[in-house]
Amino acid sequence: MTDATTLVTRIPLGKRLAFIGSESQISGDSRLILSLENTEMIVPRLFESSETKLKVSLLQVDGFVIQYRYILQMTWSVDGDILLQFCLRESIQNVRQHAHRDNTEDSVTKSDFKEANFDAGQLDTDLHRLQTQRAFFCRLRNQHSPAVRLPTQILANIFLHFCEADNSNDPMVSPLVLGKVCHAWRLTAWNLPEIWSTVNCCLSKRRYLSQVILLEEWLGRSSQELLSLSIKFRDEEEWCSSQVDIRIFEVLLMHCNRWKHLCLIVPLNWHEKLGDVEGKVPNLVELSLRPLNFDFVIEPLTGFSNAPKLHKLHASNYYLQNLNFPWARLTSGVFGGSSMDEALEVIRRCPNLTMCHFDNLMGMEATYSDSLVTNHKIQSLKISMNSSARCGIFLISLTLPRLQSLTLSIPEGHPPPLFAIEGLLDRSRCRLKVLHIKGPFIDERDLVKFLIYNDQVLEFVSEPSARLAEQFARD
């Protein structure tokens, strides 16, 4: 085996240099001399460096170079002072060399490997030290930037506007981007609780543990600001609803007294924990809950019956009998997957609703009374029905004296709803201004009669289904 060979040379900046050449020779205990021809590596030009020194160390095994390391040290001066040395390390496995094997040994000795490991550790230490030095000098340089020299309050206002206006796919990125610019920006951003008060997190199986740590730090930086939280799941079908790690939700629970807006997709095994917030959400204004994978949940949903400020609710795929909210305080409600009798019961329970939306409304289940319901506050009503629901049966049970906007989305095959709508308007004596009907085809003559009789309607939109529209165009 040959000794480890060291070649030190000085070259002008920018000269091409090769450390593997075809003119290599080795014999006995002599050192391996590498040709500097056929050069491949380009020494980069950095600042005003006048000289670069390259050191190459090689280990020889059975005619193969199994590893080489090189240190690229660059120095440059400003007013005669050396500012920084940059150390670069590289390794390549199994690079063939033209060399002869010593007949007395077949492998590198243990001492060679120990020396190599020591050198690698020393290089890691030097790299860390030099990176620290580089960060220090970059910080000195950045202090002269006009953007950094702005008054802190002005910079903070700019950051606030930036985070509010950012429309990136991952809203949690915004404050982190600001912190990457420089040390001064990071100090300002890290000490500005307002930009950390909004969390939009899409949970990933692969990144879950790091997301737990990030959420803890994120909410810690929000200080005592009220929180707007949105927790969703990427690729919901890949998650098992009864076995989702609960650590993310436990982090949220520690700050439940600061919840203001909460949008949460809830795995089955998180529902019981929701009960722990009962009486602990004094600032909650808006709540949106949906089970993971759109599964219907029969578990009682508790924890929000004593939310004193809650007035906006979005709840999907829950049975009404399992929901317990301050119904009389609600002014806006969106409900998904309700039966027609549950929808009527919701309107009955919420006398202060001004906006009500039923998505995927289903047929009657006879769980609640279908008797006439009167609500004196609803101004906007949106209903999207599935094939089992009947628009006429639902509307005939309603009296809404202040209704101004009505949107109906009806499956193909259902009869046009104009007759049921006229009955609702006559009964309610309301002045409807906006009417949108999606799904069925409405005969032009019926439409003219309706608008003549209900001349208070200022906006009417009829959107037949794509198939009906195509058929009408052919006819």
TrEMBL record:
SUPFAM superfamilies cross-referenced by the UniProt entry: RNI-like
Protein name: F-box domain-containing protein
